[in-house]
Structure formats: C-alpha cells, structure tokens
Design goal:
Radius of gyration: 20 Å
Order of helices and strands: HHHHHHEEHHHHHHH
Strand order of the largest sheet: 1-2
Strand content: under 5%
Largest sheet: 2 strands, antiparallel
Structural class: mainly alpha
Helix content: over 70%
Number of helices: 13
Number of domains: 1
Distance between the termini: 30 Å
Number of strands: 2
C-alpha cells in the first residue's frame, strides 16, 4: 500500500500540469514554451538534489555506459509524453485531458509482454517474459469505462480537427510515458536511484527541448513573464516532485506487473485534482451529471486496484520455476 499512497500524492502534484497548461494556453502562451521551460527549470533543482546526495558520478557513468538506449527511452518517456500533453491543452479543458490521460493505465497493463524478468532457480538464471495480469486488466477496464463515460457529453461537439489535435496526442502520451519509464527501469536495473534517474533522463532530453525553444523563439517570440512563472511552478510541482514520487513508487514494485499496474492506476486521481483545481483557479463550471458518473466509476476502479494490491500483499506466495 505504500507505493499506492506515494502514487496518489504524485497524482496531486501532476494535476498542476493540466490546470496551468490550460491556463497558459488560455492566456495566449505557446505550448512549445510550456513544454520546454518545464524541463529547463527542472535541471538546477535536480542537480542540487543529486549533488547533495553525492550521486552525480554514478549517474554520469550510467549515462555513458549505454548512451543510445538511454537517450531513446528518455525521449519516449519525457518528450513523447509531455509535448503532446501541452499541445493538446489548446483544444480541451484540463480536467478532460486528465480524464483521457487515464488511458495510460490501460497502456501500462498491455505493455507487460514487452518485458522479461530474470529469476534465480536451482538450475541457474532463467528469463521469463512478463504476462498481462488479467485481474489488473479487468479492473483497469473499469477505469477505461469511466474515461469513456466522461467523454460522452463531449462526443457531439468534437469535430475531426479537435479529435486529431486534442485527443490523439494524449493517446500517444498515454502509451509513451509508461513505455519509456519501464524501459528505463529495465535498462538501469536499479543502478540509479529515483533522483538520479529523473535528472539523467532530463539531461538526455535537453537537446530536444532546446530545439523546441529555438523554434518557439523564431515563430512566436519569447515567453511572457506569466508563462515563465507558471512553467516554473509546473517544473517544481509536476516535473520534480510528482515525477520523482511516481518513479519512486514504480521502482518499489517494478518486478510485479499487477502491483505496477495498480501504482500506475493511481494516476486516475489526477482527474479529480485537475477538476477541483480548474474550478478554483480557472472558475470553470462543474461538469455535467454524466461526466461526474464517469469520475465515480474511475474512483471505484482505483479502489479495486488498491484492494487487489492489499490482498496480493497479504497472500503472496513464492511461485518461481524450479
């Protein structure tokens, strides 16, 4: 349950992303700046933390040991995750994006067969391909149904352009984030702690964000003071605190696909936090009855995931091949 609670707390800080990205879009800020500034601001905070913990040397060695896959999966986890989310903020309210984003839970469960674990048996090491945890998949589908329900009231008003620009980018991000995160855990095999991993992945993607910033400067000009301040808040809240907490939670259960799916399911609470945040900060109206029913369904799915994890912890037995 510890990993579950850490995941929920991370979701609270993640929700800031949806609220402030929407706020920046409504005030005319470019999504290119919203995306790149977040990662620029993350760097000094993370360097200070890792340096204080005397972890810069080991982090550098890990980055240089496998630079190509390190770069590829960092780009998948951070660039293909965050750039689409900031882009889509111009086409949908934050709470609706947060709801669609919950498809990352389904994505996380379906990605299991792409990974293998090494177990020690009396005959030596054996590689076992992970299987889709059916119980977790069933519960995850409950959350998926909730996501579909909250989208129904908007279905009639969503034209093809809004669908392509406001929903498909979120679907891309929903698969990219768990894929990149899990591949990095698989690549590093625990050689870096959470802070080192987040910093290393951020540094690996900085060249890409510089490209975003240069393009933004040439096409829309420099960011406003308001966008810089809000991007700083997003960087600290979502980029440093939320990302670190989420990676810590997934690190705790990385070899158990059922528990990993449950931790990833905690991100469904972002929807609730984003909805409340937009009502308080952006003064949006309370969503309609059908959307609220969808929210309740998502909460029920989240509760089922937590219950399943608690039962698994209580009755866990060794099931290793001989």
């Amino acid at each position: 349950m510890k990993a579950i609670w850490i995941g929920i707390i991370s979701a609270l800080f993640f929700a800031v992303t949806f609220v402030l990205n929407r706020s920046m879009e409504m005030s005319g800020g470019s999504w290119l700046w919203s995306a790149s500034l977040r990662y620029f601001f993350m760097v000094p905070f993370l360097i200070a933390i890792v340096a204080y913990r005397k972890g810069l040397g080991n982090m550098r060695k890990a980055m240089l040991a496998t630079p190509v896959p390190f770069f590829i999966w960092s780009v998948v986890a951070f660039v293909l995750f965050y750039a689409p989310l900031t882009f889509a903020a111009g086409y949908s309210p934050g709470w609706l994006l947060a709801g669609t984003w919950q498809l990352t839970i389904v994505a996380g469960v379906l990605l299991a067969p792409l990974f293998v674990i090494v177990v020690q048996t009396k005959h030596g090491e054996q590689r076992i391909r992970q299987k889709i945890p059916l119980a977790s998949l069933g519960i995850t589908l409950v959350i998926f149904i909730g996501v579909v329900i909250i989208q129904i009231p908007n279905a009639n008003s969503v034209d093809a352009r809004t669908f392509v620009l406001g929903i498909l980018p979120v679907l891309l991000a929903a698969f990219a984030y768990p894929l990149g995160n899990r591949k990095m855990m698989d690549l590093l095999q625990g050689r870096l702690d959470t802070f080192q991993r987040v910093l290393a992945m951020t540094l690996m993607t900085i060249p890409v964000w510089i490209g975003f910033a240069i393009y933004a400067l040439l096409t829309v000009g420099p960011p406003s003071t308001n966008q810089v301040v809000q991007s700083l808040i997003v960087a600290v809240s979502s980029g440093v605190i939320a990302t670190t907490l989420f990676f810590l939670a997934t690190d705790l259960v990385q070899n158990d696909q059922g528990k990993l799916a449950a931790v990833e399911a905690t991100q469904s609470t972002e929807l609730i936090f984003a909805m409340i945040g937009e009502m308080l900060i952006l003064h949006i109206a309370l969503p309609g009855t059908l959307s609220l029913i969808g929210v309740v369904v998502i909460i029920i799915g989240m509760g089922l995931h937590s219950y399943q994890t608690a039962v698994a912890n209580k009755h866990k037995t060794a099931n290793l091949p001989e």
